[in-house]
Amino acid sequence: MVMNCIRRWLGFVSGLFLTIILLTGCGGSKSDRIIYLNFDGTDKFGGILIRDAILKGAESKGLKIDYFDAKGDSNTQIDQMKDALEANPQAIVLLAIDGDGIIPFVERANKLEIPIVTVNRDANGGDRIRVYSDEYEAGKLQAEYFAKSLPQGANVVYLEGASNLLLSVQRWEGFSKELKAKRSDVHILDMQDGKWSKAEAMKIMSLWLSSYPKIDAVVCANDQMAFGAIAALKAANRLAGCQVSGIDAVDEALKAVENGEMVQTVKQDGIAQAAGVVTALEQISKGGKPTDINVPFTSITKENLSQFKK
């Protein structure tokens, strides 16, 4: 009851704050503010790590950012996007929840000449400045590892991220196409949408373990789903002999690689992505027109782990 009241109050305050920004931005003049629309402030990578680095970097450059969190709700984000467009900000930083659903509002921003900067979670259309990593490459790095490590005729399952995001599709394509080209003997038993969630991945993995007596590898589109898969494998006493891979290289994943619970995590450099966003925003504030910034992925295994441990 108390938590529900707190959530309602926070939602009211957030909406009131955005309304104030809206009113100060009316009248056709461009505001000097930047509006940051996050997808979910509880997500450890895009929601927290990237957010904190952007806000810190922007502050160091004297950029004024108003931050809003959709808390994983696409309708909330669309409402926030509508209000942001009315506020006529200098730019909008967007981490999209629904890559397709947000397209009309990105296109509206294009008509209003409001720059959209996306990072970590892209929109699936409209003109935007992308600070990104090649998602196909992430899947390809996983395929290259497993092409070398899997036994003949191995069985593999794949946990995809949110299927409505282009980055999820690209990671899956990078893995499945590249693995098939290198190891036609490997069987991909199933692929399910794990929603980037540890809990969802654990549930799906538990069902797979009851359906498939032999699983040689679990390939995951992020580390959180890898942790869920590991938990299910441990509960079934089947982690030994099963290789698990994830993407993001969060601290917990590096520890899992070190202790052998994971064989690989693919580093998506969130700090470098955040720095790219700040660079783009600084250029916009000075009247420039920044271009896309590509931040490469890196495969991390026990062989090169020492280079990435803090």
Description:
- The structure is a single chain.
- The protein is an alpha/beta fold and 310 residues long.
- The protein has 2 domains: 2-131 and 270-294, Rossmann fold, CATH 3.40.50.2300; 135-267, 3-Layer(aba) Sandwich (Rossmann fold).
- It is 48% helix and 18% strand.
- It is built from 10 helices and 12 strands.
- It has helices at residues 2-25, 44-60, 74-87, 103-111, 135-149, 166-182, 198-211, 223-235, 251-259, 270-285, and strands spanning 33-38, 64-69, 91-94, 116-119, 129-132, 155-160, 187-193, 217-220, 243-247, 264-267, 293-294, 298-300.
- α4 (103-111) links the parallel β3 (91-94) and β4 (116-119).
- α1 packs parallel to α3 (74-87), α2 crosses α10 (270-285) and α5 (135-149) runs parallel beside α6.
- The two termini are 41 Å apart.
Short overview:
The chain is an alpha/beta fold and 310 residues long.
Count of domains: 2
- Note poorly predicted spans: 1-13, 21-27
CATH class of the largest domain: Alpha Beta
Q: Please trace the helix and strand order, writing H or E for each element.
A: HEHEHEHEEHEHEHEHEHEHEE
Give the assembly state of these chains. Answer: single chain
Helicity level: 40-55%
CATH topology of the largest domain: Rossmann fold
**Main sheet: which strands, in order across?**
2-1-3-4-5-11
Kindly, what is the distance between the CA atoms of the first and last residues, rounded to a whole number of angstroms? 41 Å
Rg, Å, rounded:
21 Å
